[in-house]
Amino acid sequence: MNGLATLIGAEQALLAALILPVLGAACVALLGRAPQVRDAVLVAFALVTFLTTIQLVAPVAAGERPGVELFEFISGISIAFEVEPLGLVFALVASGLWGVTAVYAFGYMRAHHESNQTRFFGFFALAIAAALGIAFARNLVTFFLFYELLTLSTYPLVTHHQDDEARAGGRVYLGILFGTSVALLLLAVIWTFQVAGTTEFQGGGILPTELTSGVVLALLALYVFGIGKAAVMPFHRWLPAAMVAPAPVSALLHAVAVVKAGVFGVLKVIVYVFGLDTLTMLRGDAGLGGRVVLYMACFTVVAASVVALFQDNLKRRLAYSTVSQLSYIVVGALLAHPLAWLGAALHIVTHAVGKITLFFCAGAIQVGAHKKKVSELGGLGRQMPWTMGAFLVASLSIIGLPPLAGVWGKWYLVRGALAVDEPIVVVVLFASSLLNIAYLLPIGVQAFFGEPPAPSDGSDVAKAPQLCVVPLVLTAFLTLVVFVAAPQIGSFVEGAW
Amino acid sequence: MSEHLPALQVVVPLLAAPVCFALRNAAFARAVCLAATWSSLAIAWTLLRQVLQSGPISYALGGWPAPLGIEYRVTVVGAFLLVVVSAVASIVLLYDRGSEQQRLPASRHYLYYATFLLCLAGLLGIPITGDLFNIFVFVEISSLATYALIALGRSRRALLAAYSYLIVGTIGATFFLIGIGMLYQMTGTLNIEDLRQRLPDVLDTRTVLIGFSFLVVGTAIKLAVFPLHQWLPNAYSYAPAKVSAFLAGTATKVSYYVMLRLIFSIFGVGFVFATHRFDLVLMPLSLAAMLVGAIAACYQDDLRRLLAYSSISQVGYMTLAICLANVQGLAGGIVHTMNHGFTKSALFLVIATFVQRTGSSSVGSVAGLGRVMPLQGIAFLVGGLSLIGVPGTAGFVSKWLLVLGALEKGQVWVAVAMLLSSLLAVVYVWRVVEKLYFGEPVASASSEDGESEAPGPSGSALWRATPTALLIGLVILLGIWTEPSAEVALAAASELLGVAR
Amino acid sequence: MTATSGLWMYWAIIALMMVGLYVVIARDNLVKKVMGLNIFQSSAILFFVAMAKVSGGTAPILTGGEGTAYSNPLPHVLMLTAIVVGVATTALALALTVRIQEAYGTVEEDELAREERLEDRSLSRKSQ
User: Fold this and answer.
1) Residue spans per domain, chain A
2) In total, how many domains does chain B have?
3) pTM for the complete prediction?
4) Interval B227-239: pLDDT, tens
5) What's the pLDDT tens digit per position in B279-308?
6) Using a CB-CB distance cutoff of 8 angstroms, which residues of chain C are in contact with residue B221?
7) What's the complex ipTM?
8) Structural fold of domain C4-55+69-127
9) Which of A214, A286, A461, B241 can pair with A290 through a Cys bridge, CB separation 3.0 to 4.6 Å?
10) Are A424 and A295 spatial neighbours (Cβ–Cβ below 8 Å)?
11) Which of B118, B167, B190, B194 to mutate to test the interface with C (most CBs of C within 10 A)?
């Protein structure tokens, strides 16, 4: 790895990481007639992208901030990229899980005999490119540009089946994501530019200190709700709607790239546009009003968990679980305390590996056992031990049991909440963990210890393709790895200020 | 040679028109027409660069100096409009050679080119002349040619559309004429620069106020300001496809220029906004246009009507910019003439191609065409995104400036209304996009697998694809490279407002 | 430029203008609309000519006499152009009317509207 690091400079690595997925999409489009070659090339691109992104770790850890400016958009605003620790972590998660998901997707799409696979993989690669663009954006305009590109490039994935259900799901997906971003986020960005004279992300924030707390609060609400991908209620409905997509899409995009792009955006805006001090002051100044957004996110945490409890469709249950978990991160960001912020940043990683495993499992169950409902999964663990085993492990990680990754995020979040004296948040976090147990754990337990709903006649032995099972075991294993590696990630991210 | 460019800008298309007429051959006429439009574009571009470098150019027509003779005066905003108009004309003219969409028999097709050139000459004359009465003459030249062009539409309703546009348009132009008379009566001059100097002495007379009203209402009719927009949907829906594309990108834009000159160059911000609070009239109308136009577009069943109502909504953005009356907002309005012009022309061309294939222009008829005609489908998508104002497309740049202008003025609710209208644009654009990609093609020419390609483009399909591709390319280019659009518009806005950048 | 006693002509012009506009709006017959339009345009032309008149002035031809008052020639020149425009507009409008008569068999607006409604209905039936 160190040998490679000398091969290309950090700036080139940054550009390469952005361009490679686009090239990958182009190659996929060209190789549509030879699926085997196409798939191999795609995995190669994913790996190279991941490796290139890794190249950036050493320089960034050393305090460098490699950046590239593409061109000036309107005077004073340019489309530009800069790598900072948080963005790099998000980029690593997105690009690293891309390859894993690609392998999984081969198995899933083949076994499901899905049509239009070339289009699927092409837009998949474009979505990754957009996610990386978000990760490395140096200013709000660049962020906004790639944010919208991500929405657009994932729309064909969500509506992949092109039937009425997909169309309806796509409408909600696009309507909410476009609606919030065009009506709220864009206003927030332009407003920021108007009051601050810049849209560059800067440690400590860019908002001038003389702004009234009313304006700051309005901006905060515009950002948090405007970044619809963060799925804070009432703008969460796109996430369950997007579950009409094939499982790999749900896995990568709606557990990793899209939703994490949203919460990553919130984190980034809080630190680099508002600055933690501004938010702390806001809480002091505006009293209850200053906490409205925070409590909305807390409400989302609990409410989404409760809704998840009553979903029988496995993917929908996971979707609501995601809505709830995303708001953990938003809560962490809004607490405006370094510890809570760290917890939020870690939760991006830990939730990503956990949730992608769960979605992989849901897809594998669909392919292997043709089951979509939670109530049908009893006893499945004996037929699909690896899949259900991974499901159990990932569930425990989401719940937050050591030695699995999920514990870290919650640990720091709770410490942060205690540090800023927000008992309500602490209560919410614990309540939500209990709800997590209630809606996730029974699935895994029933699979191993429950009885099958109907006596199996032995003819339809559930079996998922190897290409599906290997990635999900791998990501389940990653939850362990991340648990061990979390302190390193934490200290790396702390370099953000 | 180069000092005569302002005159050539109008004279080239004006003289090419009778040449086309004399040639009596469609192919030759087309060649002449193409040469004239593209050289207009070259002239306009050169003029714009000259103006940006060395300030406004004054040209005395026929050698008579300004107060006596007619002065041609190239300003930044004028040169910008010249580029927009001639670029749209040049590109749209490339679209197909055939007369499939028209009533004219092929043997008389040369007349189409002659009329087109006359219309272009009129539209180019308006932004370049420095004489108010001359503006009226050019407005009438372009309007008369426009009525004739609209009447060429294939459906017999084109005749009615042209007739009612003629009536409304003539009333508008006559209003304009009466307004000119009142100003002349009070100042004794028709030259815009002179008017600007002499008007302040008589600004508080009622004659000037009434003259202003006549001028503004006359222009507003041509600009299709809500609620004077009734002529527009019919005119755009029933005109030949190429003509709709041309008009959508030029006609209202030039009227917008006239409005800008009236308010900012002749009467001045103080008179219009401070004394008479014209913004209290125009602002609600603009907001209504933005929202009502967009809502109406959502309910249209005909693609071209949908685009026409969308145009009314977009005109609302532009007139809103006038009310903002600050550099950012006004620049947003000015740059929107270019961004929206290119976008709308491209969309009309795409629709024209769809109509040629399916024979119908209803929203339902494009079902599945996105897969059969991938390039046209993508073109519609990009154009639609530009209407919405998604970053990376030209529409975003205008919206950025407009919203910035509104916030600068402290009018958050105006910014919110603008963004709401964009949301409505999502609805009406996506209605079509969904049809393009989800439905099954009516005349089933699709293969069972979307991955295999559509039949290769034939010769005429290539002709049709080129201008669309050019315009869409410009839409994307101007979305990320704003030096020729937004920067010029900012300069133009500062010039109009008389502030240094 | 005008004496106060000369203001009556502006009232006449305004009356003419209103008559023209009324005809354009209220008449259903397309030819009559064109006539109304002509009256309306004429009022504008008269307006220009009227304001060019200088009381006691003669035709603006240099006769050499010092101190002769001339009427303002410029509005007349402008109105020559306006008349040409008006004639062209009328010609085009009438040509369109002829074509409408050929296509629809009528030039009455209410009948044209009926025709359109019928056409719409048959179209929508076809598409169903």
Assistant:
1) 2-454+461-496
2) 1
3) 0.89
4) 888 889 988 888 8
5) 888 899 999 999 999 999 999 888 889 999
6) none
7) 0.90
8) Helix Hairpins (1.10.287)
9) A286
10) yes
11) B167
